[in-house]
Specification:
Layout lengths: L13 H6 L1 E3 L7 H7 L4 E4 L7 H18 L3 E4 L3 H11 L8 H5 L13 H14 L9 E4 L5 H15 L4 H13 L5 H7 L8 H15 L9 H23 L5 H21 L5 E4 L2 H4 L15 H9 L4 E15 L8 E5 L7 H6 L5 E4 L8 H4 L2 E4 L14 E4 L1 H4 L2 E8 L22
Parallel strand pairs: 2-5, 2-6, 3-4, 3-5, 6-11
Antiparallel strand pairs: 1-8, 6-7, 8-11, 9-10
């Protein structure tokens, strides 16, 4: 995958890419992207790593404009429902706290830095200020889409039932007892235990989910109660998490598909809750946002959130925005559960999309037409770097996803040199004015 550029450094498809790109410096340079979004009701914003300041900053800038100028209803992120719902209560004025930081510090599951960081705190402070100026019914929410919070969601269900439907608590306890018998508090132990008990706690969890839905049906629809929405979502998480961990231990792409389908279903449920004119912003990794059909994921039988959104909601308008960088620093761990570190990402590999975009010079916004007919050169799959929460810069050859860029995304923000995220659990350095709440 070499030889893309001649000695002058221009790509063989240079004019086509240049015509679709423009330099970006601040939020005002997003006008072209706002025009491309138009009246779309779904805007999915990616990231090429879970630990890069610039991706969070630009997602905040665009989200802020979408909320202020286009009336978007909520932000839904690749995060756990219980933690994000607590932040939702803060940003909508239902939870009193000294600031967003102590609320975010309660994000305790590794990798904590994904949402417990100063960049999210800054956006949350702005969102709370914005919401407190709006009628309560029009306030913009902040929710989690992910499937990992099995035990935390079970705890929340028990609390809800004790307060509102004590006669139904036994069904939650039944699920608790089943999980305790197959691994206790550790989902990984539960996954291993299901090798000997293949059905796991599926029956108990389905019974609990149906009970919660029966109890909340009248109050959790459009404009319904937040307590009922929270209970139903936590029940769906327990159902999804149980299936996810039971499937994960058997390998293959089935657990990935379960997770992304759960995120898509959660997004659908939030749209119902916010009403027929709801508009959604999603923050998640490129691997979830970029349409999987235009990567090597398709050959493995894998789907993702971006693909499902296009397939199911294309008539409502879906815009997928990816991110890219040539090099810089990133927060990650060298193994699952390892301490977070500030690591240097080397310059992008020759022949990758990231290296190609670097040749354009500086930070660029690329916008592809709604029905692209790109040249053969642009249709050739090229690697696009994807850094996860586990990252070893010295062994990153496998971190590139073969991608047809103008079909995987509707737009791409290329930030040529990036800097690492600023986790709350590391002593903050606020030398950058971009970290202060009202400068995002």
């Amino acid at each position: 995958m070499t030889g893309w550029f001649d000695r002058q450094g221009s790509a063989s498809f240079g004019p086509e890419i240049v015509a679709q790109s423009s330099p970006i410096d601040d939020a005002r340079d997003l006008d072209r992207l706002l025009d491309r979004i138009g009246e779309a009701r779904y805007v999915l914003l990616g990231e090429a790593s879970h630990g890069t300041h610039d991706y969070y900053l630009w997602r905040s800038r665009l989200s802020r404009r979408l909320i202020e100028e286009r009336g978007f209803s909520f932000v839904a992120v690749e995060g756990d429902w219980p933690d994000c719902f607590r932040l939702n209560r803060y940003v909508t004025g239902l939870l009193d706290a000294s600031s967003a930081a102590p609320v975010l510090r309660e994000f305790a599951r590794w990798p904590t830095w994904m949402w417990a960081n100063w960049e999210v705190a800054a956006f949350a402070e702005w969102l709370r200020e914005w919401n407190l100026r709006q009628p309560e019914r029009n306030r913009t929410g902040f929710y989690g889409l992910d499937v990992y919070s099995l035990r935390e969601s079970l705890d929340a269900i028990v609390l809800y039932l004790r307060r509102n439907h004590p006669d139904a608590v036994e069904k939650a306890y039944r699920a608790f007892r089943c999980f305790d018998s197959l691994g206790g508090d550790d989902p990984q132990e539960y996954a291993v235990a299901t090798l000997l008990a293949p059905s796991g706690c599926e029956a108990e969890v389905i019974e609990l989910l149906l009970e919660i839905r029966r109890r909340t049906a009248a109050a959790s629809g459009f404009g319904g109660g937040l307590a009922e929405l929270d209970a139903e979502m936590n029940a769906a998480v327990v159902r999804g998490a149980e299936a996810y961990y039971r499937t994960m231990i058997r390998g293959g792409g089935a657990s990935w598909n379960l997770r992304d389908r759960h995120m898509a279903e959660t997004l659908d449920r939030l749209m119902i809750h916010h009403g027929p004119n709801a508009k959604a912003i999603v923050w998640a990794h490129n691997t979830h946002v970029g349409d999987a059909r235009h990567t090597d994921m398709a050959a493995a039988g894998m789907v993702n959130l971006g693909q499902l959104a296009r397939e199911q909601h294309g008539s409502d308008g879906v815009v997928l925005v990816g991110f890219s960088t040539y090099g810089g620093s990133v927060i990650a761990g060298r193994a699952w559960g390892a301490p977070m570190e500030r690591l240097l990402a080397p310059s992008a590999r020759a022949g990758s999309w990231d290296a190609a975009l670097h040749e354009l010079g500086g930070d660029r916004l690329l916008i592809f037409p709604p029905h692209p007919e790109p040249s053969e050169a642009l249709l050739a799959p090229r690697g696009q770097r994807a850094i996860g929460v586990v990252y070893n810069p010295e062994h990153e050859r496998g971190n590139y996803v073969p991608t047809v860029l103008p079909l995987r995304y509707d737009a791409v923000l290329h930030i040529d040199r990036t800097q690492a995220l600023h986790p709350l659990h590391i002593e903050p350095t606020l030398e950058s004015p971009e970290l202060y709440p009202w400068n995002v």
